[in-house]
Amino acid sequence: MASSARLPRRNVEFFCAVIIVGLLAGVAGLAATSFLRFVEHATYHYSFGTLLNGISGSSPVRRALGPVVGGALAGFGWWMLRSRSEVPPLAQTIERHEPVPRFAWSIDAALQVLLVGSGASLGREGAPRQFAAALGDFATAWLKRLSARDREILLACAAGAGLGAVAAVALAGALFAARIMLNTWHPRALGAAFLTSSLAVAVCSAVTHDQATLTWPSSESTYLLTAHGLMLAPVTLVVGLAFKRLMAVARPAKAMRTWVLVPALAAAGLVMGVCSHWWPELPGNGRSILTVSLASTMTLSSAAAILVLKPLLTALFLRAGGAGGMLTPSLATGAAAGSTLILAINWAAGSHLHGPAVSLAGAAGVLAVTQGSPIWAAIFVWELAHPPPWLFLVFLLTACGAYGLKILVVGRGPTL
Q1: Are the C-beta atoms of 19 and 126 separated by less than 8 Å?
Q2: Residue 273 burial by CB count (10 A; 0-12/13-18/19+): exposed, middle or buried?
Q3: Which of 103, 265, 395, 398 has the smallest number of Cβ neighbours within 10 A?
């Protein structure tokens, strides 16, 4: 009787914890988004519009020195943090049921946003995931009946909800927690993931206004794009594998902890600043590249240059000791690959194939290869822009095709 009575109480506590985690993940997403915008506006000295507008309107000196200052400040912060405490990876901490370093994760998240906001070629999505997990663990520590598995689910849900909040992708955020962080279809985990992600997106809508991250153009597209989706799969396989390999080589075996972080990240910022003089789409997490891909404003030469430079600059910041997400840089690289392919075909054949759809299909294919989850990749890309629903099939075909080819070529390796 006692054990049967404890089970309902445990379920009640778990439900309360899910609500708390969802709300706090939204707060984490709201804080990360607001801080990112503040840093971007301060770095490039603009008041309205997107980061791309700010970079395009800034002076050459500010373009070059803004990332230098941001990199130096972030490097100093990491030098102080890492020399005093450990900052373990989020996935490893969840999987091994290790204690959550709440303070270290929170400071690390703020430094990630500082670096990305000042122009570093890294993803911002790691910051809200860490901060949400830290807040969620702190706020649910008083619930003593939760099992170790319950706390693992809650931390994964916090991470997924943090991702969903900043990108306004409730479904993708939930599936990220269940399929990538936990690798399960268990109803308890799925239910918690969907509830936390939905709450987080609702809270963060105060700054995202519940609008899609990307604006889908009104140009027409045809069902023939399904064939183009399959044709794109081998290209995204090559790009995705090259991206993973480059990041694995660039990432230091142990996190840098010395004063070298300051000049290293400042130098990486200077390289980014110089490159942004010719390609203002490069700074930041990759949203600018996705935006110009959908707007069909890239030329063949600029698309090819961005395809090469974006992963190289991401690897440079990793090698210099920076920390950040890999989702949006891989997305941007995939979109550049799709744009390069479609622009080359249109130029060679004199055709007018739909660039935005192929660009996003390229993003989905590369993301499927780097993350190891094609269904999630297709959903995430679709939610970012909300294109016509049938285009989800194109994204899914490219993602599944690229992932299937990856299994044939290299097998089921660990995800990035």
Answers
A1: no
A2: buried
A3: 103
- In the three-class reduction of DSSP (H, G, I as helix; E, B as strand; rest coil), residue 26 is classed as helix
Q: Return the sign of the alpha-carbon dihedral for residues 228, 229, 235, 239.
A: positive
Tell the burial category of 119 from Cβ atoms under 10 Å away from its Cβ (0-12, 13-18, 19+).
buried
pLDDT, one tens digit per residue, over 100-149 is 999 999 999 999 999 999 999 999 888 999 999 999 999 998 888 888 89
- SS3 readout for 221-268: CCCCHHHHHHHHHHHHHHHHHHHHHHHHHHCCCCCCCCCCHHHHHHHH
Partner residues linked to 10 by β-bridges: none
Q: Give the number of other Cβ atoms within 10 Å of residue 257's Cβ.
A: 15
Query: What pLDDT is attached to residue 253?
Result: 85
What number of CA atoms fall less than 13 Å from residue 65's CA on the CB side?
7
Cβ atoms within 10 Å, residue 336: 32
Q: How many other C-beta atoms are found inside a 10 Å radius of the C-beta of residue 222? A: 10
CA 120 vs CA 39, 148, 329: distances in Å = 12, 37, 10
- The per-residue pLDDT for range 353-386, each reduced to its tens digit, is 667 888 999 999 999 999 989 999 999 999 999 8
pLDDT tens digits, 224-246: 566 667 788 899 999 999 999 99
Count Cβ atoms within 10 A of the Cβ of residue 250 and give its class: 0-12 exposed, 13-18 middle, 19 or more buried: middle
Q: Which stretch of DSSP H or E encloses residue 304?
A: helix 300-319
The predicted-structure confidence for 160-196, as pLDDT tens digits, reads as follows: 999 999 999 999 999 999 989 998 899 999 999 999 9
